[in-house]
Specification:
alpha+beta, 16% strand
Length: 94
């Protein structure tokens, strides 16, 4: 029966890690391209989520003003929903 010394085990572990690192390092450009597309996809999903939330708020504004028309404003004070009381007057929905 042969005993394996700690030094031999560590050498095998380091050799394995060197092999793995070499494989990763040789493909650095591929990893960068992969990361770029992952980040672009994630950004697109975030943009779509924000756009759908804005559309939902605009639809909720229209529904709260029925049967009158509505205006949905976005400004520095936040999003605001206004309903037409008559041709010249806007009021906030209840």
């Amino acid at each position: 029966m042969r005993f394996i010394h700690r030094g031999e085990i560590m050498n095998k572990v380091f050799s394995f890690l060197k092999t793995v690192w070499s494989w990763v390092y040789d493909r650095t450009v591929i990893w960068c391209i992969f990361a770029f597309f992952i980040l672009m996809g994630w950004g697109q999903l975030q943009k779509n989520e924000l756009a759908s939330k804005a559309k939902e708020e605009a639809v909720n504004c229209k529904l709260s003003c029925l049967p009158a028309s509505s205006e949905y404003f976005k400004n520095s004070n936040g999003d605001q929903c206004w309903c037409y009381n008559d041709v010249n007057t806007l009021i906030r929905p209840q």
